[in-house]
Amino acid sequence: MQELYQVFILAIIQGLTEFLPVSSSAHLILIPKLLHWPDQGLAFDVAIHVGTLFSVITYFRKELKLMIVDWCKSIPGKPATPNSHLAWAIGFGTIPVGLAGLVFSSFIANDMRATWIIAASTIGFGILLGIASLVAKQKRDERHLKWKDVLVIGCAQAIALIPGTSRSGITLTAGLFVGLTRQAAARYSFLLSIPVIILAGSLEMFKLAQSDLIIDYRALGFGFIVSMITGYACIGVFLKLLERFGVMPFVIYRVVLGTVLLFIL
After folding, report:
1. Residue 142: pLDDT above 90?
2. Taking the CB of residue 141, how many other CB atoms lie within 10 A of it?
3. What is the CA radius of gyration of the chain?
4. What pTM, to 2 d.p., does this model score?
5. Where are the domains of the chain?
6. Is 34 helix (H, G, I), strand (E, B) or coil?
7. Which of 43, 59, 153, 177 is the residue whose CA sits 20 to 30 A from 144?
8. How far apart are CA 177 and CA 62, in angstroms?
9. 88 touches 74 (CB < 8 A)
10. Given its phi and psi angles, is residue 230 left (phi above 0), alpha (psi -120 to 50 degrees) or beta?
11. CA distance 226 to 5
């Protein structure tokens, strides 16, 4: 059982950090430890992740509808369109993280959650994001991805299994390195999150179904709603911030956050 204000804060953190390039794992570890809160538990993690899944599906609902229609038409062999190409790119881009999760999930869960690892990943991959922003050519949008670009970004997403890396951050970084504009790299990152959250959420729900945990459905429902609303708002705001300020504010924030993790926890 959690107090509703704790649920509210953690759900907001999830809604923000799932899409901002700042590492959700670092924040969800830092805040409860600093405030001496109990572990939020598996059921709550499932609820807030499903909330952010609904937020990205809702935000990109028009694009997703076009992509699904064109993708279905492309299966019998009809000529590819930019929408069907993007749909296939999302599917193939998810394969590396799916395979990595199957092979390394146990190792990561048991041996890669040390605070120093999270702090180092937060700092290191934050700096890498800054470098990508400085050298990026930013010429193409997400509907003109090459298959080698999909492979690079997909493999980068697999690295995000390391706590502190930030799935959004590492895919944005890889997108910039292969020549996407900031907005295109971010949009592709957001769309890539859909199958990833579905896969991870399904695995967590399977674990939950096998456990005998007592579930506080009030907290789960509240967390789901808050994370969904926060995530939806975050996507639009983040795209505007990227256009105006670039990624450097987030790079600086990550370095500061990682340093705090190193010296406080």
Report:
1. yes
2. 16
3. 18
4. 0.90
5. 4-264
6. helix
7. 59
8. 28
9. yes
10. alpha
11. 11
